[in-house]
Amino acid sequence: MNIVWVLFLVVFHNGVCLPGIDTNVSRRPAVVNIGAILSFNTTIGRVARVAINTAVEDVNSDPSVLGGTKLSIKMPDTNFSGFVGIIEALKFMGSDTVAIIGPQSTVTAHVISVVANELQVPLLSYSATDPTLASLQFPFFVMTSQNDLYQMTAIADIVDHYGWREVIGIFADDDYGRNGIAALGDKLAAKRCKISYKAALSPSPNRQEITDMLVQVALTESRILVLHASLPWGPIVFSVAKYLGMMEDGYVWIATNWLSTLIDTNYPLPAETMDDIQGVLTLRMYTPDSELKKNFVSRWSNITSKLKKYGSIGLNTYGLYAYDTVWLLARAIGAFFDQGGNISFSNDSRLINLPSHGLHLDAMSIFDGGKLLLHNIFEVNMTGVTGQIKRDQSGTIVRPAYDVINVVGTGYRKIGYWSNHSGLSVLPPETVYSKLPNRSSSSQKLRSVIWPGEPPQKPRGWVFPNNGRHLRIGIPIRVSYQQFVSQVPGTELFTGYCIDVFTAAINTMPYAVPYKLIPFGDGINNPSSTELVRSITAGVFDAAVGDIAIITNRTRMADFTQPYIESGLVVVAPVRKTDSDAWAFLQPFSRKMWLVTAVSFIVVGVVVWIMEHRKNDEFRGPPRRQFTTILWFSFSTWFFAHRENVVSSFGRIVLVIWLFVVLIINSSYTASLTSILTVQKLSSNIEGIDTLRLSKDRIGHQQGSFARDYLINELGIDESRLVPLKLPEDVAKALKDGPKKGVAAVVDERAYLELFLSTRCEFSIIGQEFAKIGWGFAFPKDSPLAVDMSTAILKLSESGDLQRIHDKWLMSSACSSQGTKLEVDRLRLKSFWGLYLVCGLASLLALCIYLTMVLLQYAKRHQEEPKPFGSSSTSARLKTFLTFVDEKEDEVKKRSKRRQLEKPSNGSQVETVGSFDSMRRSVEIPSNRCNEANDEA
Fold this sequence. Notes:
Elements: H1 2-12, E1 31-36, H2 43-60, H3 63-66, E2 70-74, H4 82-93, E3 97-101, H5 106-119, E4 123-125, E5 141-143, H6 148-161, E6 166-172, H7 175-190, E7 194-201, H8 207-218, E8 224-228, H9 234-243, E9 252-255, H10 258-266, H11 271-276, E10 281-285, H12 291-305, H13 317-338, E11 345-347, H14 349-352, E12 365-367, H15 370-379, E13 382-384, E14 387-389, E15 401-408, E16 411-419, E17 423-425, H16 429-432, E18 471-476, E19 486-487, E20 494-495, H17 497-508, E21 515-520, H18 529-537, E22 543-544, H19 552-555, E23 559-560, E24 565-574, E25 576-578, H20 591-612, H21 623-636, H22 649-678, E26 681-683, H23 689-694, E27 699-702, H24 707-713, E28 722-725, H25 728-741, E29 745-749, H26 750-757, E30 763-775, E31 778-779, H27 784-799, H28 801-810, H29 814-817, H30 833-864, H31 874-886, H32 889-901, H33 907-936
Parallel strand pairs: 1-2, 1-3, 3-4, 4-5, 6-7, 6-8, 8-9, 9-10, 18-21, 18-22, 27-28, 27-29
Antiparallel strand pairs: 10-15, 11-12, 13-14, 15-16, 16-17, 19-20, 23-31, 24-29, 24-30, 25-26
C-alpha cells in the first residue's frame, strides 16, 4: 500500500526533472546537503525552523565538527499538509541529500519511512513520536526526542498513583492518535486499569464535532479524561468542555505534552485560554538544567528578536531537540567521513526496470553510504542542550523523563517528575538515577494538585452515568431462611438482613446511587448464587446483593466488597443428653489411659524396689513381703501416702519425677470428673467432618448452597451420598429420620444453621468450623463502586450499626445461646504421653546406672573370693549373682573389709573360716525368720 502511495505521489510530481547524480564525489566535500520537512506556521514548526537554522550556523562555524565541510540545508514549508510533505521528501531523495530532518507529522513519517528504507536515506525526527515508528519496520527512521510510549507510561503511573481505574481517551483518528491511545491502553492494563471509552475525532475536527463528542463523554461513568490532541484543535476541546461544565468539580483532565508545548511557545496565553485549562495536568519532556541549555535559552531571545516577521516565539522542548538533532547529524557525518565514507548514489534496479511513462523514476537513487551513516547516528554519544544524547540497543534515548505540570492561575506549577527508572518522584531524574530503582507504591510521590473546580480533596474519578439509567441489582429470591432476604408479596420491595445492610451502606456513601432491585429466581427453589454472579459478567445485572458467599470461582467472575458477615461450613447432627451413672468415676480416663497408668505404677514400684533393696531394710524381707511392699508403695503414691523412706539417690530421683507425673494426672482426673458430675452435656455418634467423610452415611445440604460442590470437589464425597434439602422443616425431618431414611448430618453455612438451631435444641453443631468464608456484595470486575461499598461497610462495622442490624434479624433464642455443647472428650493417653516418656526414661536411666554399679561390685568380689570346686556352671554363677544381689550392701562391704584384713596361712585356716561363715549364716537365718514372725504378728 505504501508503494502505491509513492507511485501515486510521483505521478503528481511528473515533469519535475532532477539532474543526475555524480557518484565521483570526494571524501571530504565542501558541502553536504541535508533537508528538513516542517510546517512554518505551526507551533512546533515556528520554533524548530529557528532552532535548526541556528544549529546549522553553529555547526558550520565550528570546523572541528566536519573538518571544514559545511552543511547546506533546504527547508521547504509543507504548510501543515501531509501530501506536500511527502512530495518534498521525494524531491530530497531524488537529489544528493544524505539525510532528512523530519518529517514533523507522524502520518507523513509513516509514508516517507517506507521510501527511506528503500533508498537508505536516514530520517531524523524530533516531533514524530508515535511508538510504532520505533519498530523494526522502519530501520532508517531515527526518533531524536522521547518516544510517546514513555509518555503513556507516565500517564498510566499517574492514574494508578491516585487510585483511579478507568479513563476516557480523546484523540484524533489518525496514526498519531490511534497508536498513542493504544500504547496508553497497554500501559494501563499493566496497572489493572483500562480505557473505558475511546472518543475519536477526525484529524481536523470543528467545534461542533468536538461538542457532540464531549456530550457523549459526559454521559459515561469515568471522569478521568486523557486528551491526546494536536495543537491546532486541542485548546478548542477545553473551550467546549468549559462551556459544557466539564471543567468543574469531579473532572480530571490529563493532557499529553502538546499542552506544555503550547504554553511554553505562546507564554503568556490569553486570559480566556488560561481560564479554560485551570487544574489540567500535562507532561513536558524533561531536559536537565546545564550551562549549554542556559546559554542557548539566553541566546534565544536575541535570535528571535531579529525575526520580527515571526512574532514572539517562546522556546519549547521540541526546539531544543531540533537544535540537538542537527548537531547529532553533524557528528554522525563527521564520523562517517573519518571512517572513509564517501557520498555516492546508485540507481535502484527495481525502479529502472519499471516503465517510466514520463515519471523519471531513475532520479530515485540509493544512498550508498546510508547504512554506515545510520550506524554512526546510533553510535553518537554527546551532551547537548537536552542533556545526554545516547541510545540503547533498541535505538531509544536512554533515561527518558518528563516534568509533571499542573496548570494554575496565569501559569503552571511543577508538581513532580516521572522517569523510566523509578516512576513518579518529587526529585529531579538525575538525582533518582543515582539511586537504585524503586517502583513501590510508597515511593511514588507528587506534590499537591489543584484540580478543576478546586475541590477540597482528590476527585473520585467516576460518577453514575448521567443518562437516567439506574443500577440493575439482582436479588436472590430465597425459599428458606427468608430472614436474610425476601420479597414482600405483591410488591417490588425486599426485606431482610442482607437488604438492610446494603441500604445502610448505600446511605453511608458520600454520593447518591440510583438503583433498582430486580428479583432473581423462580420463587420455588433457592437460586444459585454462582449463577447470579455469572449474570453480572453477562451484563444482565450491574451488581448482586444477598447472601452471596465469597468463594474462589465467584471471585474470578466479579469483584466483592468487604465481607459484612463471617460464615463457614459446619456439621449439624442430632444430639442426646447424657447423665452420670454409678460408674461415672471411670469416665475421665479412656481405657488405654487407665491401663498405661496402672502399668506405670507397677513399673515405678519395681524400679524403686530394685534400687532400694540392697540399702533399705524397708524394702527387704521374704518374697511375699517384698511383693506386698512394691504394690503398696507404688499405688500409695497416688495419694502421696507412701510410708517407706527412699534412701538411694537414684531412687529419690525416680520418685520425684513420678510424683510430679502423679500430681498432673491426679489434677486432670479431678477436673474431668467434676465436669462429668456437674455439667449437662450432649453426645453424638458423629465427631465432625472427618468422621462424617469416612462414614458411608448420607449427608444433607441446603439446596442452592455451595456446600454441595465443596463436599464433592474438595472432600471427595460421593455425590450419591448428598441429599438436597429446601426448607428448615425438611432439614429437621431428615435429621430425625436418621441415616437410613433421612441423613446422618447436615453440612451448611454457619449463618443458616445458627438460625436453624435457634428454635431446635435437639440438634447441635458438631466439631469445628471448616472452609471459613464471608458474605459480600458482587460488582463487575474493577468496579469503583465495590471499593466505596467496602469502605461504607467498614464504617457500619466501626459505628456498631452492622451489629445492630444483625441483632434485629438474627438474634439467637434461649435454645441456641444457652451454651450447650457436646460431651467433653475423655482424657486420652496422647495428652500425657510426654509425662510418661520423661518418667520412663528417667527410671530406665537410673536402673541402668544402678545395675552397672552392682555388676562392677560383684565382679570385684568375684575376683577376691577363691572359686569353689564345681562353680563354673552357668546356673551356679547365676545363683551366686542373685545371692549377691539379695544381700544387703552394708554386709557385703563389711565382709570385703574383713577379708582384706585376714591373711589365710594354710588350708585349715581357710576351712575354719569357711566353717565360721557357715555357722554365722545358720545363726542369721533363724534370726531373720523370728523378725519376720514378729512383723506378721
